[in-house]
């Protein structure tokens, strides 16, 4: 009899958790978009619940999240594995629109900005408060997009990434926080240091915060997406700010990464979320990026094609052709060196 009661109680608890989760997801207005924006990416779009006077629709910030290599592909559900969308589904409250695209191979600034334009045209987005955040390959994307469109984003945060930009001075025009673990073996900290050095060579880099996190590996930085202060820091900036100064009142340390950030995101819940479940696989992200992102060459081997090399080195056939002064129909010769970066 006792055993039967225990089983019944467990079933009731499971049902209650499922019911509550369903209510949370229904309240969240999260929609998938596939092929809705020409020459862009498929993406998730989160619309925050209405607040205050229901007769008015006040504008709200927009967060653009760029994922790392491990979430690439054509299955949009992968984008929910870590990041702002996952934090929202865990119960974290983020009073902003969230746009989370998915790429199969690197991030192109122009394709990302088309999604921002789409959101601005259809929703009450506060165009002075659009933010960019990404990790690993998404960290590369964040810096590439921010450096290309520094006047479209109020602030940006790049985690354990780098950049493929050729000119970095544009990054000095916006509040920017770059964080990287010193024990990162997937994307060495030198990739971020190169960006910092280039920004400082351009100017004083007075809007930059550079945070090396001692002892932190690659996947550890995924925890930053689950910290309330991450979003508080972003939201503290606006394009309307005089001089667009950076807010230095916030700090993220190794101790923060070692804390129970998932409990914080859930508002004190008891469910244990493992590192593997939310971002642990990020150790594989951007593994093909060299720690030094200077000029790089590839020696042609049997079976190599421009399209294969473009995928391998996170670039495009068009860019490879431009770098090497060839056409897409050019036959690759074994043993010859091809510039890939």
Give an overview in words.
This protein has 341 residues and is of the alpha/beta class. It is built from ten helices and ten strands. The strands form two sheets. Strands 1-2-4-3-5-6-7-8 form an eight-stranded mixed beta sheet. Strands 9-10 form a two-stranded antiparallel ribbon. α5 links the parallel β7 (176-181) and β8 (208-213). α3 (109-122) crosses α4. The longest helix has 26 residues, at 2-27. It is globular, with a radius of gyration of 21 Å.
Outline:
The chain is an alpha/beta fold and 341 residues long. It has helices at 2-27, 84-90, 109-122, 137-148, 190-202, 228-235, 254-258, 261-265, 306-312, 317-324; strands at 30-33, 42-46, 60-66, 97-102, 125-135, 155-159, 176-181, 208-213, 297-299, 337-339.
**Structural class per helix/strand content?**
alpha/beta
Poorly predicted runs are: 268-294
CA gyration radius, whole angstroms: 21 Å
Q: How much strand?
A: 15-25%
Tally of helical runs: 10
The shape, in one word, is globular
| Biggest β-sheet strands, sense, barrel | 8 strands, mixed
Termini separation: 70 Å
Average pLDDT reading? 85
Topology as a string of helices (H) and strands (E): HEEEHEHEHEEHEHHHEHHE
Give the fraction of residues assigned to helices. Answer: 25-40%
Reading side by side through the largest sheet, how are the strands ordered?
Answer: 1-2-4-3-5-6-7-8
Strand segment tally: 10
Features:
about 15% strand, 10 strands, 10 helices, alpha/beta, single chain, two-stranded antiparallel ribbon
